[in-house]
């Protein structure tokens, strides 16, 4: 069955599940970002952005989710959800179906990119006797839960390479790791920016398990080649050739002329965009290590930057953020004289 036909029901079911065909009626402009599982990189990026907004007296609600597909759809019409982190292959997947299904076409309309982020490595943790992707044929392989980026990427990779596992288990990576250790499955996919905490905190036995190398010309036409450096994970002392997919921060094309909610949301998008651009060095120094590899100019093809983002990164933009640290009011000449005389007598 063609990839398009096989995966189309997933997107349609997700649309129905999330109620995204109904109009948004939210009136408030609480800022929210759809991220991912607690052990993933997306949620850590979301928390970094919340802390960044906190520097100017505002917050961003960080929402856990199944991952990329749910996030993409939620940005379209979930109330008070201006941001979502998604994978670039999910964007291509959704765009592929835009001309064939009216519901999906409506989901895509209005979705924009805020910023490109980082490359996410495709991790496939497997038993030591499994040498490469081809060896997954006839095995029990966990491919992530529906609506997650891991699920879509794993499905695409297995289809493109022609590998047919005996079982494709819809299991989240955090649940798949203990199953792998117990011998209940043979391998599992996980798309996450390295270092992923699932592997740094999972106490993985290097004699029993390893990350599969992924080197395939067909895949490299869709994904970027990537090398996982030696020692990124304690169980992986040698470098591993892999593939990676771009993570992007998505938003919506808000129209300030439309209504109060659109105006307030556009202002929030502009404020966060301004902060990200002007404090990217702070994010790289204090945030998740993946911020150090973010290239704000590396826009994936086929998608547009939101106008509210361009508004926020304009040098003339005046942010509406209220500083968390009140600015000191300059003393009057009389007050300065008072402080000077006091200090001369009692010291300051």
Automatic annotation (TrEMBL):
Pfam families: NMT1_3. Transmembrane segments: none annotated. Coiled coil: none annotated. Signal peptide: none annotated. This is TAXI family TRAP transporter solute-binding subunit. It comes from Paracoccus subflavus.
């Amino acid at each position: 069955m063609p990839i398009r036909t096989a995966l189309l029901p997933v997107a349609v079911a997700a649309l129905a599940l999330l109620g995204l065909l109904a109009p948004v009626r939210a009136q408030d402009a609480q800022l929210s970002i759809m991220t991912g599982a607690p052990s993933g990189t997306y949620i850590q990026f979301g928390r970094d952005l919340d802390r960044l907004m906190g520097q100017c007296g505002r917050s961003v609600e960080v929402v856990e989710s199944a991952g990329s597909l749910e996030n993409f759809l939620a940005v379209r019409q979930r109330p008070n959800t201006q941001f979502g982190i998604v994978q670039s292959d999910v964007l291509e997947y959704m765009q592929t179906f835009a001309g064939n299904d009216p519901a999906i076409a409506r989901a895509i309309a209005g979705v924009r990119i805020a910023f490109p982020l980082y490359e996410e490595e495709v991790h496939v943790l497997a038993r030591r006797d499994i040498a490469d992707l081809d060896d997954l044929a006839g095995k029990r392989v966990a491919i992530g839960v529906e609506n997650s980026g891991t699920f879509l990427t794993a499905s695409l990779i297995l289809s493109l390479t022609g590998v047919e596992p005996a079982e494709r288990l819809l299991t989240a990576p955090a649940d798949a790791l203990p199953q792998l250790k117990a011998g209940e499955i043979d391998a599992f996919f996980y798309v996450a920016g390295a270092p992923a905490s699932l592997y740094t905190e999972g106490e993985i036995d290097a004699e029993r398990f390893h990350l599969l190398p992924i080197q395939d010309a067909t895949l490299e036409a869709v994904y970027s080649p990537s090398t996982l450096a030696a020692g990124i994970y304690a169980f992986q002392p040698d470098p591993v050739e892999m593939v990676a997919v771009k993570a992007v921060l998505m938003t919506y094309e808000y129209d300030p002329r439309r209504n109060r909610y659109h105006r307030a949301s556009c202002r929030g998008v502009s404020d966060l965009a301004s902060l990200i651009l002007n404090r990217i060095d702070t994010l790289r120094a204090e945030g998740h290590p993946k911020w150090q590899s973010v290239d704000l100019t590396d826009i994936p093809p086929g998608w547009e930057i939101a106008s509210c983002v361009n508004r926020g990164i304009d040098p003339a933009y005046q942010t509406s953020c209220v500083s968390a640290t009140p600015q000191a009011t300059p003393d009057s000449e009389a007050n300065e004289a008072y402080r000077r005389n006091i200090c001369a007598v009692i010291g300051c």
